[in-house]
Amino acid sequence: MEEICNFEDVKRMLDNLLRESEPFWNAFYTDRQKNIPFFENKPDENLVSYYEQGVIKPGKVLELGCGPGRNAIYLTEKGFSVNAVDLSEESLKWALERANEQGVHINFIQKNIFDLNVQESEYDFIYDSGCFHHIAPHRRMDYIHLVKKSLKPNGYFAINCFIEGGPLGGSSISDWEVYRIKSLQGGLGFTDIKLQRIFRDFACIEVRKMRSVNVNESVFGVDGLLTAIFQFRC
């Protein structure tokens, strides 16, 4: 019914106006030969640095928007227990194939992240590599609530997202403009100051540009992304 009776109805209406749906992402992941940088089966360089520096240690992980599973596989190989979520059935088929090829077990979940049933203080680490910049402004409070509810006290949350006006896109439109034009323009862009303002309830450990890596390196890194890691101190 197209009837608004509460705030959830408002959010669902705005979702339908803006959100790129499951069919879009299934089509996106169907052609695995496309020249998409993050289709490479390599973990993010910043994620590897968090582990190698001892910032994150083996524990329970929730990955939001896992795509073809490259970061979930890396974390599992390092001894983490991973629940990896994505909206796209096609991306998870690919991720499961990769996991099986590498002999690791990951709990892949096909679901909208806002429909997840998470336990309070369940996770030591939450990772998002490319999901947040596709989240519409009206869903940010739900996103933050999900992270805060899911993380254990002193747990870590890390994110990769488009740089505002960067080479990968990163629209610089205002939050209000999103609704005037009814579009995220392929993904919203952020600055370090804006990320720290949005996630002000967390202690900021680091915000920086992703390191662009050589093709021969065993990690993924490109220009145009911001990386950030926060701690949930409560």
UniProtKB/TrEMBL annotation:
Signal peptide: none annotated. Residues 1-30 form the Gla domain. Keywords: Methyltransferase, Transferase. The keyword Endoplasmic reticulum does not apply. PROSITE patterns: GLA_2. One of its GO terms (molecular function) is methyltransferase activity. SUPFAM superfamilies: S-adenosyl-L-methionine-dependent methyltransferases (SSF53335). GO terms for biological process: methylation. This is Class I SAM-dependent methyltransferase.
